Amino acid sequence: MQSEVLDAVIKGVLVGLFMAISVGPTLFAVIKYSMDNSYKAGLAFVLGVSVSDSLYVIIANVAASWLVVLGKYGNYIAYVGAVILLIVGLAGVLRKAKPKRPSKEAVTISGAHYVKIWASGFIINTINPGVIISWLAAVTATANKDGTYRFILFGTCLVLILSIDFLKVFLAEKIRVLLTPRRLIYVQKGASLIIAILGAMLLLKTFMGQGT
Question: Residue 143: helix, strand or coil by DSSP?
Answer without folding.
Answer: coil
